[in-house]
Amino acid sequence: MFRVMVLCLAAWAVPLAWASPDVLLPPGASVDDSTPAQLSAEWWQWALSAEREFNPVSDLTGTHCAVGQSGAVWFLAGGFGPSKIRRTCAVPSGKSLFFPVINMMYRPARGYAPMSCDETKAAAAVNNENAIDLFAEIDGVPVPDVQRYRVATPSCFDVYARIPEAQRRVNGFPSASDGYWLLLRPLDKGTHVIKFGGKYNRNSDAYGRMIQDIEYELLVE
């Protein structure tokens, strides 16, 4: 995520690296009436619904990328905490893709005083105020101005909504998400490479120095 005969020629000469990938949807665009803000909450519910052994976010190879996937949108994972991960993943054709460049989720913590929804949203946002070096690349084409794709959940949600209540270790409401998310149209069949990541630049033990560096080789079938 430039400047009428001569000017048009100059525009055609803009390097490919300054053009947005054709599959990238603009900020705020939706898929099947699901906005990026809604999808970010669903992504976190998906991310925390699988056991760690089979969790797509913990997965270092892509073996478990299909776990918990459903509907028109296919989620790609970052990593829990600082992560440098390379995955290979088979994706059904016709699926839109949604993934975090870098992001935070905040939820109630066991043993701490309850927080309001506004307090929870503020806690989820704080590191993203200091996000730097954000990048995303789709089949070799960088996404310009990734900062435009910041998304925050407008209301709080239950991050454990996919987990049976009897299996929940803590209360999942109120939870909130804030970060930088990209939504792609379905990719053509074949092999595609997607890279994304960034870092936080804040003095805090709460992931204030987290770095994400993720690469996917996607086999669209």
Tell me briefly what this model is.
The chain has three helices and nine strands. With 221 residues, the chain is an alpha+beta fold.
With strands numbered from the N-terminus, the spatial order across the biggest sheet is 2-9-8-4-5
Mean pLDDT: 90
Element string (H = helix, E = strand)? HHEEEHEEEEEE
Overall, the morphology is globular
| Poorly predicted spans | 1-18
> Biggest sheet: strands, sense, closure?
5 strands, mixed
What is the rounded Rg? 18 Å
Q: How many domains?
A: 1
Terminal Cα span: 28 Å
Helix content: 10-25%
* Amount of beta strand: 25-35%
Number of separate strands:
9
Count of alpha and pi helical runs: 3
Structural class: alpha+beta
Secondary-structure map:
Elements: H1 6-12, H2 36-47, E1 73-75, E2 83-91, E3 96-106, H3 117-125, E4 131-138, E5 141-142, E6 150-152, E7 176-184, E8 190-200, E9 211-220
Parallel strand pairs: 1-3, 2-9
Antiparallel strand pairs: 3-7, 4-5, 4-8, 6-7, 8-9
Description:
The chain has one domain. It contains 3 helices and 9 strands. Strands 2-9-8-4-5 form a 5-stranded mixed β-sheet, with no helix packed on it. A hairpin with a 2-residue loop joins β4 and β5.
Keywords:
221 residues, four-stranded mixed β-sheet, disordered N terminus, five-stranded mixed β-sheet, globular, alpha+beta
